[in-house]
Amino acid sequence: MRIGIEAQRIFRKNKHGMDYVVLQEIRELQKMYTGDEYFVFVKPGEDPCIENSEHVHIIELSCPTYPLWEQWALPRAARKYGIDLLHCTSNTAPICCEIPLVLTLHDIIFLEPRDKRNKSLYQNMGWLYRRWVVPRILDKCKRIITVSDFELDNIVRKLPRTQGRIERIYNGYNDWFKPTEDTQEVYKKYIPEKGYFFFLGNTDPKKNTERTLIAYSKYLKQSTVKRKLLMADLDENYLNDIIVRNKIENIREHIVMPGYIVNCDLPYIYNNAFAFLYTSLRESFGIPLLESMACGTPVITSNTSSMPEIGGPDAILVNPEKSDAITEMMLRLENDAIFYQKQKEIGIERAKLFSWRRTAEQLHQLYHSIK
Fold first, then answer.
1. What secondary structure letter does DSSP report for 369?
2. Are 268 and 186 in contact (CB under 8 A)?
3. Pseudo-torsion of CA 70, 132, 25, 78, nearest 10°?
4. Per-residue DSSP letter, 113
5. What pLDDT shows up at residue 330?
6. Do residues 86 and 354 lie in contact, with contact meaning Cβ atoms separated by under 8 Å?
7. Which of 83, 194, 199, 312 could form a disulfide with 277 if both were Cys (CB 3.0 to 4.6 A apart)?
8. What is the pLDDT of residues 119-147, one digit of tens each?
9. Residue 261 φ/ψ region, left for φ over 0, alpha for ψ in the -120 to 50 degree band, beta for the rest
10. How far apart are the C-alpha atoms of 305 and 301, rounded to whole Å?
11. CA 143 to CA 148: how far, in whole Å?
12. What are phi and psi of 88, to 5 degrees?
């Protein structure tokens, strides 16, 4: 088969969730010789993170906007290269495309009530675009992929016409996420001392940044250690608003915000952290949860959406809407050495159930199941 894979954003420098998923899938397919040819369609960028190989061809398509790139340039290029099957990997696909489609629908948050506190123009425009495109492409998709049983059930319940064509394929994590010694002290690029709490927050309300910071304020009042909080990729004005609104000035001197952390440094960040706070209100999968567990770093995560499914029954699961519950577990990890060690062991074993190789093998099987 000649299989097209949409990977529009993987060459951008600051990659995020869906970018990493398709990048790792392509890398694994590149290692497998299946007899198929893959044509990977990308937008030019400053980080050409994957190269041509014998059966994987990188096709750069220039276009000024994401909608125009997807709706015009992508189907045009797919026709030009004689693609038999086009896999669109980031929730949307071309509306006018005669080539059989596979769609990865990571989530359907765009069909759920919108939090009016979200002021991000980029996120709001993406939300509107998905609401417009997805209903128009679902019936054209031969197969739909999602990333957890939670999300599969959610999609079928809200979009019943997907039933019978939707399949769950779990994400994986990179094998360099493992317990390791930071001999070069990479973590010091971001924070002076190890033994900190780590949090990947942003301005999206689903990340639950505000309640997590309130929980951290309560932790500081009760802890004798008072560990720093390393927060990646968060806007300082957004942080200031939260501090002022909730009167939690006590956290300001304990927070370190280095900006974006490159992926190759993340294993060292996890390994030198005391614990990872993954307290989202909603996740369709949660790769950072696996990454931290694989490094042997205990995770405090939420008892909602997919997180119990991925973290497993022995994970530290809290109600993310209750800041006291988050605080309680931060303090328990700090004061109960036996509990802390047990969580390290639980995480390492749980992460072994997931891999990008398994993801790629299931993708290959799905492509060839389409008649």
1. T
2. yes
3. -30
4. P
5. 98
6. no
7. 199
8. 566 667 887 899 999 999 999 999 999 99
9. beta
10. 11
11. 15
12. -95, 125
At 159-215, the pLDDT tens digits run 999 999 999 999 999 999 999 999 999 999 999 999 999 999 788 888 999 999 999
* Cβ-contact 47, 19 below 8 angstroms: no
- Single-letter amino acid code for the residue at 358: R
- pLDDT at 116 > cutoff 60: no
Q: For tokens 């009530």, what's the residue?
A: 113
Q: Where are the beta strands (DSSP E) in 176-218?
A: 196-199
Q: What is the DSSP string of 116-167?
A: TT---HHHHHHHHHHHHHHHHHGGGEEEEEES-HHHHHHHHHH-GGGTTTEE
360 and 29 in contact (C-beta within 8 Å)?
yes
Burial degree of 235 (CB within 10 A; 0-12, 13-18, 19+): middle
At position 30, the amino acid (one-letter code) is: Q
Task: Report yes or no: 333 and 339 within 8 Å, Cβ to Cβ.
Answer: yes
Distance CA(168)–CA(170), nearest Å, equals 6
pLDDT for the residue numbered 203: 81
Residue 303 has pLDDT above 70, yes or no: yes
> Measured between alpha carbons, how far is residue 158 from residues 109, 147, 153, 154 in Å?
11, 16, 9, 6
Counting DSSP H helices and E strands in the chain, the numbers are: 13, 13
- Collapsing DSSP to helix, strand or coil, 367 comes out as helix
